[in-house]
Amino acid sequence: YPSGNLALIVTGEGDQLICTIQEDEPRTAKIRALFQSNGRSTCYYPNGDEWINMNIQGGQYLDQAGSRVRKWVWPNMSPGPHVPLSPIFISLNRHVGVRILAQDKIIVSFLAMGRLAKFNMGIKVQVTATSQLPAPAWLGKDELLLLAFRLRILQLFDRMRGCIDFPSSEQWNKMRPPAYLLTQAAKILERCAATDISDELRSSIAATVKQ
Asked: Per the database record, which ranges form the FAM194 C-terminal domain (predicted)?
């Protein structure tokens, strides 16, 4: 960002790439979007709630109350006619926007100091007549783990900020986490309870998000 804060990070995990877009903030560095090379992507509202969630089968758009506004299936994911996906555009902040045109055209635009950069985060999945698609899973184990680790990072950032603002451990140890972190932890645990995963993984995720 023009402020010097990091806006976009690309990291590798095994054979996967993850693009993380952060908010223009010096300390909290809230995550505003995650794009994975396996086709899973999530955009977040400023308070951390999900805004748009996509996978190789389709996507959904949620309002700030958590209600589904739109849901779609990519045209090459199932036979038969499809309702065309109307282009979706959201502004994560005054510098970063996301435009969803097709599965292989998910454009992240970055505008600052009169210059524009564009990054295509979309992928193209070829489906043959003999291929078998995985069962629909908006929240699979990989996504639940990703959400849990993301929340843990935000929790650690919050504790670091508390240490800096209140050097006395007696003070910051008594401080409650921000409400949005508590809300996200509760939502992740609810989703774990509603998802078909092992008890071991469910316990691991619960331990990760525990303050």
From this structure: 1-174
